[in-house]
From TrEMBL:
Keywords: Fatty acid metabolism, Lipid metabolism, Mitochondrion, Transit peptide
One CC-aspect GO term: mitochondrion
UniProt name for this protein: Enoyl-CoA hydratase domain-containing protein 3, mitochondrial
Family: Belongs to the enoyl-CoA hydratase/isomerase family.
Gene Ontology BP term (one): fatty acid metabolic process
Keyword Ribonucleoprotein part of the UniProt annotation: no
Length: 247
C-alpha cells in the first residue's frame, strides 16, 4: 500500500484556508479514497506557517452573509470528512497552526509536529471568536486548556500541545519526515479493511455512553472476526507467520 501526501502550498498567503483551498483540500482527501492501495493520508505544508486559518479577506463585509456561511460550512465539512475517511490521516506540522489551521491539526487522527511548531486560536484578538475551531479543540483538549487558548489567543508550544494531547509526537525539525514515515509504514503493514472498521468504530463509540459503547464495540469485534483479514491474522499468529492481507 502507499500513502498520499497532501501539501498546503500557498506559503505567501500563510496557507490560509480560503474557499478555493478548502475545496481543493476536500477534493484531495476524497480522491480515489476507496483505492485498495491507499493506506494513509499525510497533510503537510510549505513555508514557516503550517496553516493560518481562514482567509480574513474573504470574511470582510464586502462579501455577503451567504458567502461567509459557505466558507464555514465547507470548512466544517472538511474537518468532519477527515474522521469519516476509511484511512488514517496524519498531520505533519512544521510551523505555526492558528485558528482553523489549529482546528485542522485537532481534526486529524494523528499529529506529528516539529519542536518549533506552535498552536493558537487567536480569533478573539480580532473580534472573531474561534467558535468553529473550538469544536475540534474542545474534543481534543481538556476544557480549561481549550478555553484558555480561546479566551487569550496565546499560543501553545509544541511541548505544551503534546502534554495536553493536541498532538501525538514532538520531534526535532530534521526528524519530522522520518518520524511521520515511520508511523505511516507501520500503518501500511496492517489490513486496510480492519483499520477502516476500527477507525469508524472509534469515532462512533467516543460519542456514546459507556454501556452503549461496549454494545457497539462488542458487535464490531464479532464483525471483525468475520472479516477475511480477521481470520487470516489470527491464523497467522497461531502459526507464527506473517499475515497475508486480502489487499
Amino acid at each position: 500500500g502507499f500513502y498520499r501526501n497532501i501539501v498546503l502550498n500557498n506559503p505567501r498567503k500563510r496557507n490560509a484556508l480560503s474557499l478555493a483551498m478548502l475545496q481543493s483540500l476536500r477534493e484531495d482527501l476524497l480522491h480515489d479514497v476507496k483505492s485498495k492501495e491507499l493506506r494513509v493520508i499525510i497533510i503537510s505544508a510549505e513555508g514557516p506557517v503550517f496553516c493560518s486559518g481562514h482567509d480574513l479577506k474573504e470574511l470582510s463585509s464586502e462579501d455577503d452573509v451567504k458567502y461567509h456561511s459557505q466558507v464555514f460550512e465547507i470548512c466544517a465539512e472538511v474537518m468532519t470528512l477527515i474522521q469519516k475517511l476509511p484511512v488514517p490521516v496524519i498531520a505533519k506540522v512544521n510551523g505555526l497552526a492558528t485558528a482553523a489551521g489549529c482546528q485542522l491539526v485537532a481534526s486529524c487522527d494523528i499529529a506529528v509536529a516539529s519542536e518549533k511548531s506552535q498552536f493558537a486560536t487567536p480569533g478573539v484578538n480580532i473580534g472573531l471568536f474561534c467558535s468553529t475551531p473550538a469544536v475540534a479543540l474542545g474534543r481534543s483538549l481538556p476544557r480549561k486548556v481549550a478555553l484558555e487558548m480561546l479566551f487569550t489567543g496565546e499560543p501553545l508550544s509544541a511541548q505544551e500541545a503534546l502534554m495536553h494531547g493536541l498532538i501525538s509526537k514532538v520531534v526535532p525539525e530534521d526528524k519530522l519526515e522520518e518520524e511521520t514515515m515511520k508511523i505511516s509504514h507501520k500503518i501500511c503493514e496492517s489490513s486496510k479493511s480492519v483499520l477502516a472498521l476500527g477507525k469508524a468504530t472509534f469515532y462512533r463509540q467516543m460519542t456514546q455512553d459507556l454501556d452503549t459503547a461496549y454494545k457497539t464495540t462488542t458487535q464490531v469485534m464479532a464483525d471483525n472476526l468475520n472479516l477475511r483479514d480477521g481470520q487470516e491474522g489470527i491464523e497467522a499468529f497461531i502459526q507464527k507467520r506473517k499475515p497475508v492481507w486480502s489487499h
